[in-house]
Amino acid sequence: MEDQSVRRFIPEHPLPKEIQEMKRDDTVCQFCGVSYLIHNEMKALEMRVKEVEKQLEYYKGSVKREEQLKVKVASMEEESDKLSRALQASEQRTSILDADLMSKQNQIEELKRKNDSLKIDKQNDLSQLRDLVKFLSRSQRDLQIQRTGLKDLKLFVEEKNEAFSEQITNLSTDVALFCMKFLEEKHKLLEKLTRCETGKTFAEEALQKSVVSIQELSSKCMLLESKVSEQDKELKRVKEQNDSYNKEIHCYKELTKSKSSDLNNYKEKLQTQTEVFQQEITLKEDKLLSKESQIRELTENCQNLEKRIAEFTNNRNSEEEKKLNRAAEMEALKESLTKANDEVAALKLEREMMIAAHHNRIEQLRESFKKKMEEADAWPSKLDKIMKEKEAQFLEEKSNLWKELTDGFQKEMDEEQQKHIDDLAAWRKEAKAAQDKFREDITSLNRKHREEIKQLERAANEAQGETEQTRNASKSIIQNLEAKILDLEHRTRQPSVESVEHVARLTTKLQESDKSLQQAEKHIIELEAKKEEWIEEIVFLKETVQRECEERLELTDALAAARAQLLALQRASVSGANSLDSSRNPSLNRGSGKRFVSNGISENNAGTDVTACSVGFDGGVVQRPGSKSSRTGSVDDGRQRIAEAVRRSGSKSRLGGKFGS
């Protein structure tokens, strides 16, 4: 209908250009007061009406666009709320971790003090061990001197045995010659007796002489019997001396057996100690592996947080740019609306002038134009009503969503707080258990070292007592041997065959005792070598303990660096949360346009804070020299050293015979 009304008034013969270029006052009729350019003005008005209709169509589409934009803005606000929740959760986690780090630092300081005291105790133990080693070296020197003395005594005894055997052989030859002479004299006497019996009748004088000779021979026989009895007594004495020698040899064998049993006990104790050391080393390796896995998990969590923060900052910046563009579009639309309203007012004035000038001809156009203008005037009011309704709906939806989000956020925060509290309790329990185990390990090590020192002192004292006993026994044996040799030299010069056999037995027993002494010396040398190896292993284990303490100090430095990074994150997150709260509170009381602008500004500030936080975390400013690479290298070195110590102990135990088995 509007197109038909406009087409009715299109003239068939338009005015020439000269009239169109004339001024308005010149073109006015003097009789009716109507301008000749009324047709052109009507055409211009029609063109303006078409432009206004186009603008109205554009505004009709703008309502839908605004609705779509509102939906997008709501989704973006939801995402921003989620990200703010994540930030608050991370802030709470960082605060909890800060508290845990403070407690751990205090515990680490206490452990450092204890380590210092333990180091002092270890130094004292080392000094005592060195003194014991010096004492053992001195005792070894004394033993070597005693061995040389014993060897000299052996040589002296062998020489005396050879001389004594020569004397015994000489005595045996003398006794055999004396017996032969005695038998010959007996035969001679028997012949004389036969001669005397046959010559009794011939000569009494010869009988008297024979009686005298018989008396002399009887006296000689008595003397010989007394000598034989003395020789029997000497043989008995030699037998008694041999019995005493046998008893002394048995005592010496018992002493060697007791020493061998003591050595076996010492071996068993050392085996148990080595097994305990190996078990402790395995436990420490497991602890180190668990700590490394915890550190890796913490680093991975930090990296994930950094990535999330970077994504959040990017999304926030893009959202802010979109909001700024939308605000500019809304301002342009408002300006166009104001311009359209001004143009409509001007058209109304012109229409009144034209109605006043053209009473009859322009009434239809006036009515149609009035209708169109009324419709045009009604469009802004309709738009305002629609905008107000949409704003009211948007505010209601926003308030409802805000309530739902706050309720959900509080629930999630409560759940996460409970989870964090449970995790912290479990972690604290684990830390306390680890500290208790570490203290128990340190106390057990100290006790073991002290027990070893006491055992070594006892062994040294026992060795000193045994050396003194062996010295006294050797001195007494030497004195007894010298006395016996002197007695044997002063004894009879006519020994019997039994004495020769007894001397041979004594020589065999002396040879056996020499062999047993040589075996005991070899066993003592082997034990000394094993003792030196054990001392080296103990020193190596002490060095590994010191290195582990140094690695723990490095871990404390790394924890301090992590604490500094977490403090920087906490500060940045607190500033971001404050800016978000300040931006949300005024947005609920203002209009839609101002609300978008204020939210954009606050989100810009929050975005800048988040970017500063992420840069501060990744900038490498807080990194320290003994952070990650040094920790991994030191832990690997400690593992390799412990493995080498275990291999050495295994190889040495295999070479040690019964001790290794």
UniProtKB/TrEMBL annotation:
Keywords per UniProt: Coiled coil
Give the residue range of the signal peptide: none
Q: Where is this region: Disordered?
A: 577-601, 619-661
Q: Which residues form a coiled coil?
A: 42-128, 214-255, 281-375, 428-572
Record's compositionally biased regions (Polar residues): 577-590
**Record field: compositional bias (Basic and acidic residues):** 634-647
Which named protein is this? Answer: Protein LEKR1
